[in-house]
Design a protein that fits this description.
Layout: H1 4-9, H2 18-24, E1 34-44, H3 48-57, E2 71-81, E3 87-96, E4 101-110, E5 117-120, E6 127-135, E7 141-145, E8 149-152, E9 155-158, E10 166-174, E11 179-188, E12 192-204
């Protein structure tokens, strides 16, 4: 069985680093999960207004106002089939700031079009970011978002670009450190960078029942 990421990427999939292949090959019948641990060397971005609004997001685990350097990071990915029968993957991130612990949770699911992947930015699945997935020349993974959409009462509404956000995620193997370099950037045209964090991590793949 192929994962939603394998289907979306196609023949390029096998050009990724083996650990990234295993991460993105995860599907509901894999029998394992992915745990990513490391350090975010830099977490920045967001005006004072954006960061104040982000406090509201802490209740729903999709935003936080804290910024800093050398922040311990932990993430779990688990795959499952949702109530519509679609392959899905949870992304549950934990950031351990000196004075508090913050969470950033979202999900990725098979898109409505064949061989596509959507990033669900809220727990109800109303607002989504369709993703482009590419393998880099060095065997890394590059995820970039397309036009944000809203899914309401069976209708798909494209959100104007100036109101939406653009997200970029890149993961690359660092041979010198034997770790993975990661960089996540979330941008909003009216407010600039909302959140940017980068660091180094390693992955493991424990079995699940």
């Amino acid at each position: 069985m192929k994962s939603m990421f394998e289907k979306a990427i196609g023949e390029q999939f096998n050009q990724m680093h083996p650990d990234l292949q295993k991460k993105y090959a995860l599907h509901s019948e894999s029998g394992y999960m992915v745990i990513t641990e490391g350090t975010m060397h830099e977490i920045k971005g967001g005006s004072l207004l954006v960061r104040k609004v982000s406090i509201l997001g802490t209740k729903l685990n999709f935003a936080f106002p804290e910024r800093g350097d050398e922040i311990p990071f932990y993430m779990e990915n688990k795959a499952y089939i949702d109530h519509r029968g679609k392959e899905s993957m949870t992304w549950k991130r934990t950031f351990r700031f000196p004075k508090t612990v913050r969470y950033f949770h979202d999900e990725m699911k098979e898109g409505d079009s064949p061989d596509t992947v959507d990033n669900l930015t809220d727990q109800w699945g109303i607002v989504r970011l369709p993703l482009d997935l590419k393998v880099t020349k060095t065997g890394g993974m590059l995820l970039t978002s397309r036009t944000m959409t809203a899914h309401l009462f069976g209708n798909v509404i494209k959100i104007p670009s100036f109101l939406g956000v653009k997200a970029t995620v890149i993961e690359e193997y660092n041979q010198e450190k034997d770790l993975f370099d990661v960089h996540i950037h979330i941008y909003q045209p009216l407010f600039g960078t909302i959140l940017s964090y980068k660091g180094t991590v390693r992955m493991r793949f424990p079995q699940v029942g």
